[in-house]
Amino acid sequence: MKFVSQKAVLSDAIGIASRAVSSKNAIPALEGILIDCREDGLTLTSYNLEIGIVTHCGASVEEEGRTVVSARLFSDIIHKLPDEDVIFQSESDSVCRIQCGPVEFSIPLIDPSEFPDLPEIEGDTSFSIPQGLLKNMIDKTIFAVAQTDIKPILTGLYFDVKKGILNIVAIDNYRMALRKENILSFEGGTRDFDFILPGNTARELEKILGDTDETVSVFLSEKKICFRLAETTVISRLLEGKYYDYASFIPKKGSIVVAFSKKRLSDAAERVSLIINERLRNHIRFTLSGNAARLSCSSTLGNASDEILLDSSYDKFEIGFNSRIFQDAIKAVDEENIILELSSSVLPCVVIPEGNDSYLQIIMPVRLKN
Q1: Three-state SS for 83?
Q2: What is the pTM of this model?
Q3: Contact, 238 vs 265, CB < 8 A?
Q4: 85-102: burial string, b at 16+ Cβ within 10 Å, e else
Q5: Helix (H) or strand (E) holding 269
Q6: Is 119 contained in some domain?
Q7: Do 262 and 221 share a structural domain?
Q8: Are residues 130 and 224 in the same domain?
Q9: Which residues pair with 225 in a beta bridge?
């Protein structure tokens, strides 16, 4: 096989395909990228038995063929080449030559027959959504996915479609993030369905999606899912199990509703967190009194506090928050103003953007030391 491709075009395609390469596997081919060289260009495929990525790359093909090349080595080489056309030619079934200007490499190849086939997606459930919107919905929830596999279903994003509304939910026992959008419609009416997308797949998909109105088509089977973009296809397994009844976690509107400038609240939280010692789990103390909110913290490194003046006056109220989770909640809001809904020091706090009912977060309070 032999092809010529622009260095930047080839590098971008390798960057996308490499996201599903297996780092360590008993099958050496899974640590590589399958290159399928055809008249219309290149198809690069990677697969780690959980996620598979197929992406198309423009190239001038002089000789068709298929081979597998080490993903790490191939990526490193292409990345370091000068900005000229890259010539890739297989000299035998086991060795290829890569040329770019005065630079030349000879590297080993892997038998493409060792590369397993990606699963077929057979199902009658599908929908389309703008790439930029899906990217935003994942971004606003993925940080709340559980990092441990004690409860495997919580390591994924829950997609719940009800009456044409897509709800994406993440829960990690300390918080919940919910982003919804009324975007889905089907011929003959709406259809309800749900699935749990592994967190790793969601993270890689978010990096591939563009901030555009171009659509991504989603095809769903019982255990697999396929996201199809113009030049790239992502295939993944789904997590099995029944997700939590997330709607029951959302408390009624709190008796204390406080509006803040997002920037002012974020600045205050960051300042007092400078003396947080994560190992000793020091927390932020949030206090309302009169027309001011006070954020403070005490640790072995010292004491810190900041006060924010408010437009309304409040009775004395105090609650504690995990510093990292509190800051994550604030940063996830895009709007200029943010609202905290509070009920008591032991009940969840609801965080919502002002004037936007399509997004909310729930964060659990922590017990404060006197």
Answers
A1: coil
A2: 0.92
A3: no
A4: bbbbebeeeeebebbbee
A5: helix 262-272
A6: no
A7: no
A8: yes
A9: 220, 236
- Looking at the 3D structure of the chain, how many domains does it have? 3
In terms of residue numbers, what domain contains 351? 252-363
Same domain flag for 285 and 341: yes
End residue of a domain, out of 114, 139, 155: 114
Tokens of 48: 């780690």
What does the pLDDT look like over 191-249, one tens digit per residue? Answer: 789 999 999 999 999 999 999 999 999 999 989 999 999 999 999 999 999 999 999 99
- Nearest by Cα to 323 from 337, 343, 304: 304
Cβ atoms 50, 237 nearer than 8 A: yes
> Are residues 176 and 262 both part of a single domain?
no
Of 114, 139, 166, which residue constitutes the final position of a domain?
Answer: 114
Residue 188 has pLDDT above 50, yes or no: no
pLDDT digits (tens, 9 = 90+) for 256-311: 999 999 999 999 999 999 998 777 677 999 999 999 999 999 888 899 999 999 99
Structure tokens at 65: 């063929």
Question: Which residues are bridge partners to 315 per DSSP?
Answer: none
Are the CB atoms for 65 and 97 separated by under 8 Å? no
Cα 189 to the center of its chain, rounded Å:
30
CB 195 within 8 A of CB 159: yes
Token pair for 168: 């994406």
Cβ neighbour number for residue 262 with a 10 Å cutoff:
17
CB burial string 17-49: b at 16+ within 10 A, e below: bbbbbbeeeeeebbbbbbbbbeeebbbbbbbbe
Within a domain: 369: no
CATH of the domain at 305: 3.10.150.10
The answer to whether residues 231 and 276 belong to one domain is no
| C-beta separation of 146 from 154 below 8 A | yes
Q: Is residue 368 part of a domain?
A: no
Q: Are residues 160 and 267 in the same domain?
A: no
3-state class (DSSP) for residue 36: strand
Whether the CB-CB separation of 20 and 88 falls below 8 Å is answered with: no
Q: State the CB neighbour count (10 A cutoff) for residue 173.
A: 11
